[in-house]
Amino acid sequence: MEGYLGFEFVTQNHRWRYANTQLPANRESQPRQDKMQLVTRNTTLADSDSYKVKLSASELTHETSGHVIDEEWLVFKEGAAESGLGSIALNVDEIYEFDENQGLLLKLNNKNDVGVYKGIVTWSIEDAL
Prior knowledge:
Layout lengths: L4 E6 L17 E3 L5 E7 L8 E7 L2 E3 L5 E2 L4 E5 L2 E4 L5 E2 L3 E4 L4 E6 L8 E2 L2 E7 L2
Antiparallel strand pairs: 1-3, 2-11, 3-10, 4-9, 4-13, 5-6, 5-12, 7-8, 7-11
């Protein structure tokens, strides 16, 4: 396949910063600290409609305590719709820009250990046909 099919830009780090006193008792989606951008490009002869951007993640692990936030608490919001990461299928050859309340969000509550959590978010382009 000649040409390029891939990502031109993906926001690399996502940050949420809250005190437990700012969080609800039940898990709710919390805005990120920063905006998010995703740029995909298809310069191949293949039709861009035959490809979709997919998203998955690992669990998030607290740096010192080892407390885990399951990957199911990472969600994706576009417009009014909020979905689990496994159901995301974005178009290729698009520029996506999300404010802090859209895109990748984390459902938090006031029971999580305070501190730094790390995990891996994987973006992929898959053949949708």
